[in-house]
What we know:
54% of the residues lie in helices and 13% in strands. The chain has helices spanning 14-22, 24-28, 51-56, 58-62, 74-78, 97-103, 106-112, 128-140, 157-170, 187-192, 194-206, 212-218, 226-248, 253-282, 287-298, and strands at residues 2-8, 32-38, 83-88, 90-91, 94-95, 116-122, 144-151. Helix 13 runs antiparallel to helix 14. The structure holds flavin mononucleotide. Residues 10-12, 14-15, 49, 54, 57, 89-93, 122-127, 164, 168, 184 line the site of flavin mononucleotide.
Amino acid sequence: MKNVLVLYYTQSGQLEDIVKNITLPFLDSQEVKVTFCDIKLEKPFPFPWDKHSFFDAFPESFLQIPAVVYPPSDEVLSRKYDLIILGYQVWYLSPSIPINSFLKSNSARQLFENTPVITVVGCRNMWVMAQEKVKLLLKDINAQLVGNIALTDRHINHISVITIVQWMFTGKKEKYLGIFPKPGVSDEEIKESPKFGKIILEHLQKNSFESLQADLIAGNAVEIRPFLIEMDKKANKMFEKWAGLIVRKTSSRPKWLKVFNIYLLVAIWLISPIVYILHLLKYPLVYAKIKKEKVYYKGV
Ligand SMILES: Cc1cc2nc3c(=O)[nH]c(=O)nc-3n(C[C@H](O)[C@H](O)[C@H](O)COP(=O)(O)O)c2cc1C
């Protein structure tokens, strides 16, 4: 009998939907016992978000400053797992506060020590640098990252910005104005995700995760868009400056969060289209580098 722990955090339910679909094939198997555990914060974030809370979460998300999380039940903690599936979302190009807080907790150290881990990202579309941060957090607790599945909104970047804002501030995953596409990971992709569970199950039964990521990639578990990597890296540099500044401004924090809000709008609607045009112009010159990066970020 194999023990699999599925750990996740979700506000809208999207990530729960994703991890439950991925692990559907496990439930048919007599050889696997699956335990689900959702991560809970002592002070939960609101959902739907209000504008202040949304921007107020920025500095601590980006700087990965942990909040207090409830430990999993004694029953969950008492077992040793053959595999952990960690479902997480990205907040401000970093693992969300509940996830980074959990990964820094004593419970995580106990559960993850010498245990194979598959990360499942469910986000808008900018996850590559957040995954690099998760890799470091997993390394710190001696976990072995063996696989990664990244499910995103596949629509044009700016369309996904408009629709996700609507979703986050109303709590409704619906077609905005009846004309925009539904936000987030598509229903079709979520419905198809048991295909990843089948791949994982084969490796679990073989007791080897060596070629797991290659098999997941063959099943389209990860799509890399070079322009998004470039934006992710550039934005990380800028966010570092902003987050550092805002945490130092304790008394004028609300004012600085408003300035950051304006910066973000300018970055998304003015700077990123310019970066996109430059990206296209220099594409042939940096083709070899992009090819190398694609291989690296698809892997674990
Ligand atoms: C505060 C906040 C910041 C976010 N930042 C990003 C981001 O940097 N990149 C990204 O791809 N998605 C980002 N998202 C979208 C989330 O990754 C995720 O898709 C969405 O919150 C739904 O997840 P859920 O399962 O918790 O409902 C952000 C969402 C929130 C609430």
